[in-house]
Each structure stands twice: as C-alpha cells, then as structure tokens.
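pasting for ref
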Amino acid sequence: MFPFVTNVGLTKDNVGRLLAIGRARRKIENGIFNTLKNKGYHFEHNYGPGEKNLCTVMAYLIMMAVWVDQLQQAANQTLRTLLGGLKTKAKLWDSLRTVFRRVPAPNMQKLHLEIADMYCIRLI
C-alpha cells in the first residue's frame, strides 16, 4: 500500500497518473537517502545538537558535497572514466586521498591522471 498526501483533486481520469508520479518521487527520494547513507557520504552519523545547529550545518555540507560530486561527474570525462575503472566512488575517493597526500598536484586533472596511472586505467 502506498499512501500519499496531495492537495490535487483526484478524479477517475488523473488518479492513475498521480499515483505513478507519487511512486516515482518516492523511488527518487529513497535513492537519494540510500546514496547519502551508504555510498560514502556518512549521512547516518548523528552529530548531536552541537553549537548553533551543527546537525543542520553538517547536513547542508554533505548535500553540497553530493552536488559538487555530481557536477564533476557531469563535466569531467576523465573522472567518469576513472569511476568506471575503479567501479565504486569509495575506491575513487580513497585513491584521491592517497594520491593527494603523496603527490604534489596543482589541479584535479593531475590527481586524476596519477590515479589512472596507479590503476593502469586507459583514459583515451
């Protein structure tokens, strides 16, 4: 059973369409929360009340990290190729941290090239 709350008037003509929209929205929201909790963003941690709304600030920062990550994936073919070769974002992030600590890199492209070399991933 899928209960939904709406202020749209239901009719025989629109009930099926509205139900499909509600189910799609639920699927999208569940996918986003799954990503935040289980794909390396550590959203499940409770940072406590803290000083001046720490939980809220941490949630905003995590959401910004997701947004920046999505922008990078959309705009950077090298990053998409690396992600395809490494299979998981967690492995990509671990590799970025490792290379970042050990290799002077003036930009992200240099870091990506080092990771590709480290894992023998062909970028062309």
